[in-house]
Specification:
With 207 residues, the chain is an all-alpha fold. Helices cover 65% and strands 0% of the residues. Helix 1 packs across helix 6.
């Protein structure tokens, strides 16, 4: 007897299939079968596989976007070092878990193009975390904790780009192990702060 609601079962099945066979090969028919429901039932909750993919990212993976939105809405809270470290930690975990899901799309150009178009239609896409972090850094810039001449978009791209690269760049090393996420996040935040923080400037606030 099924104990979980259908929507939860569908998300669980989609997450598992996308991880094991990749987004390109995880069809809605297979997802519905794994969830123990009909494909028609799946479409009662999700309009498309792309929407299902976005819901998996937002509901089953580390919650990066809400973190960025919350910080941008209330700049000046906590320390820049602490906030950027947590952003880097969540981003590293997010990309670590999402990269295996989305990687298969890059092997099928036409499918990826259709997928990107569908994401644009529903207002989603991999560019949103960069925009979210840029918005947070600009808010901190207005609050006086980020240098007025700092390129916040470049800073956001550098931090999130490094977090995304961590998801795949270390597979070919001798150990095949990624840098520990907490240490990685702290070092990344510290290095970024060296370029954008007003700390150390005469009369400047602490980060």
């Amino acid at each position: 007897m099924q104990t979980k609601p259908a929507r939860v079962r569908i998300l669980d099945a989609a997450h598992e299939l996308m991880l094991t066979v990749g987004l390109a090969r995880a069809t809605t028919k297979e997802i519905a079968r794994a969830a123990g429901c009909s494909e028609a039932a799946l479409y009662k909750y999700f309009d498309s596989k792309e929407e299902l993919f976005v819901r998996v990212l937002t509901e089953r993976l580390p919650r990066l976007t809400p973190l960025l939105s919350g910080l941008a809405a209330e700049p000046g809270q906590g320390t820049l070092a602490g906030n950027l470290t947590e952003i880097a930690r969540q981003a590293a975990l997010f990309y670590e878990q999402s990269f295996p899901i989305a990687a298969s799309l890059y092997a099928e150009t036409q499918l990826k193009r259709r997928h990107d178009e569908a994401l644009r239609t529903i207002g989603s896409g991999p560019h949103l975390p960069i925009q979210g972090l840029d918005a947070y850094l600009r808010a901190e810039q207005a609050a006086g904790r980020v240098r007025a001449d700092a390129d916040t978009y470049a800073a956001a791209s550098l931090l999130l780009g490094a977090c995304a690269q961590r998801a795949f760049a270390y597979d070919a090393t001798e150990t095949g192990e990624r840098p520990p996420v907490d240490e990685f996040a702290a070092r990344l935040a510290s290095t970024l702060l060296g370029g954008i923080s007003v700390a150390g400037t005469p009369g400047g606030p602490r980060p």
